[in-house]
Structure formats: structure tokens, C-alpha cells
Design goal:
Helix content is about 40%, strand content about 15%. The protein is of the alpha+beta class. A hairpin with a 2-residue loop joins strand 2 and strand 3. The mean pLDDT is about 85.
């Protein structure tokens, strides 16, 4: 595979050539979008969906949280457990043990 083929494949998988079915498809397939500035996140969704994002869907089915690389991301609400861990499973021994 040539570098140009790889670049085209990556751009296609990021919905830059053909629009995604909906906003949640983009958020799930891309593991969220950087949303430090929410307007930029909406613009990225608009580019990838071919239409203005439905903010009612985002309000009820997406969450803006600090999960990746120390920045805010908008991710699908159903994917939130993938990015957060259960603190009860990862407890360290107490200093007294």
C-alpha cells in the first residue's frame, strides 16, 4: 500500500469524503471529537455529516468530558464506560497493609 492510499483510507474513515449517517456514528467511530471549543466540535460534525448537527440528539446522547490527552472531548454517552474506569476495580492497597 502506498502512502497516498493510506492517507485516502484515513480520510475516508474520518467521514471527510462521504457523509456519516448521523452525529452519533461520527462520535462512536472516531472515539469522540475534541471539544475544547464547542463551536469547533459542531463545525467538525457538520463537515462529517453534511448537515448541521441536531443539538437535541447531542444534548441527550453525548457527553463532553475530559478523557483523552488532557483535553475536553465530546463522546457518545453509550461509549463513556470505554473511556472511564471503575475505581473499585483499580484500588491500590492501603498504606496500612
Amino acid at each position: 500500500m502506498q502512502i497516498d492510499d493510506i492517507l485516502l483510507l484515513r480520510m475516508n474513515r474520518q467521514y471527510l469524503f462521504a457523509p456519516a449517517e448521523d452525529e452519533l456514528t461520527v462520535l462512536r467511530d472516531l472515539c469522540g471529537l475534541q471539544s475544547q471549543f464547542y463551536g469547533n466540535c459542531l463545525h467538525a460534525l457538520r463537515l462529517r455529516c453534511g448537515k448541521a448537527p441536531d443539538e437535541d440528539i447531542l444534548r441527550t446522547s453525548a457527553v463532553k468530558t475530559w478523557t483523552l490527552r488532557g483535553t475536553l472531548h465530546l463522546i457518545a454517552l453509550d461509549d463513556l464506560p470505554l473511556f472511564l474506569y471503575d475505581c473499585l476495580l483499580y484500588t491500590s492497597p492501603s498504606p496500612r497493609d
